[in-house]
Amino acid sequence: MSSEYPYTLRVRYGDTDQMGVAYYANYLYWFEVGRTEFCRAHGKSYADWEGEGIFLPVVESHCRYKHPARYEDEITIFTKIAEVKISSVIFECRIERASDGKPLASGWTRHAFVDRNGRLLRGDNPLRRWIEALAG
């Protein structure tokens, strides 16, 4: 749907195990970094939406691991909007090693649109309209 937004970061020592390989759960954290930077680059941060009373909790996720990221690797997280539904959005991510483009992981997260009290927002809301406009 939308075009991919790239964001590059370096794998820190604390992201890795004793063998210098990135811990598997960090990939989901990096998906979050990608989503956050995708939204910020398009003019609205998560904090902006939360200030307006709209939240995007993760309700489902998937990650396919292909090759390990290692300490000191620069990795690029490519994020895009894959699907917008009446009460949810899916962000798709892929992670590559920046030096050679080697694919490290790919996956997605599904987020519900909810209000401050955690109630599902079905239908029209400003965040959904904004995401739909980005998705094209």
Describe the structure.
The protein has 136 residues and is an alpha+beta fold. The protein has a single domain (5-135), classed as Thiol Ester Dehydrase, Chain A (Roll), CATH 3.10.129.10. The chain is 24% helix and 33% strand. The chain contains three helices and five strands; from the N terminus they run E-H-H-E-E-E-E-H. It has a five-stranded antiparallel β-sheet. Strand 4 (88-97) and strand 5 form a beta hairpin. The protein is elongated. The model has no long low-confidence stretch (mean pLDDT 95). InterPro entries: 4-hydroxybenzoyl-CoA_TE, HotDog_dom_sf, YbgC/YbaW.
Topology readout:
Layout: E1 5-10, H1 26-41, H2 46-51, E2 58-65, E3 74-84, E4 88-97, E5 103-112, H3 126-135
Antiparallel strand pairs: 1-3, 2-5, 3-4, 4-5
**Gap between N and C termini:** 6 Å
Average pLDDT for all residues:
95
> What radius of gyration results from the CA coordinates?
16 Å
Number of domains: 1
Order of helices and strands: EHHEEEEH
Strand content: 25-35%
Strand arrangement across the biggest beta sheet: 1-3-4-5-2
CATH architectural label: Roll
**Coarse morphology:** elongated
Number of strands: 5
The major sheet is characterized as:
5 strands, antiparallel
Count of helical regions: 3
Q: What is the name of the CATH class?
A: Alpha Beta
How is the CATH topology named? Thiol Ester Dehydrase, Chain A
